[in-house]
Amino acid sequence: MVIICNLIGLYVLIIFVRIVLSWFPIDPDGPIATFHGLLHLLTEPVLGPLRRMLPSVPIGQIRLDLSPIVVLFGLQIIRGAIC
Q1: Contact 18, 48 (CB under 8 A)
Q2: Whose CA is closest to 47, among 11, 23, 82?
Q3: What is the C-alpha separation between 37 and 73, in angstroms, rounded?
Q4: Residues in the chain, pLDDT under 70
Q5: Domain ranges of the chain
Q6: Distance CA 42, CA 63 (A)
Q7: pTM for this model (two decimals)
């Protein structure tokens, strides 16, 4: 059970890092691009289908993607129930 709790915590951290990196432009040839690609590879199987189901929320001239918020909320509920 402890392993599952730690994996959930790690996945939450990975999603947070992806959220923060999404605020900055990523140079495709830069050193962070590989790390960003790895984060995308790890999180997109969960976020992608949810993103297609949830509409993004317009805030001024930008659109807020709610999928990471929903996934983080769901993971915290699961973690609270089993840990």
Answers
A1: no
A2: 11
A3: 24
A4: none
A5: 2-82
A6: 23
A7: 0.88
| Terminal-to-terminal C-alpha distance of the chain | 7
Contact 15, 74 (CB under 8 A): no
User: Which pLDDT value is given to residue 1?
Assistant: 85
* Confidence (pLDDT) at 30: 85
Answer yes or no: are the C-beta atoms of 13 and 77 closer than 8 Å: no
- Maximum Cα interatomic distance, the chain, rounded to a whole number of Å: 44
Written as six digits, the tokens of 77 are 């509920």
19 in helix, strand or coil? helix
- The C-alpha atoms of residue 4 and residue 53 are separated, in whole angstroms, by 27
Tell me the one-letter amino acid at 57: V
DSSP state for residue 25 in the 8-state scheme: -
Give the SS3 label for residue 26.
Answer: coil
| Count of beta carbons in the 10 Å neighbourhood of residue 54 | 13
CA 24 to chain centre: 15
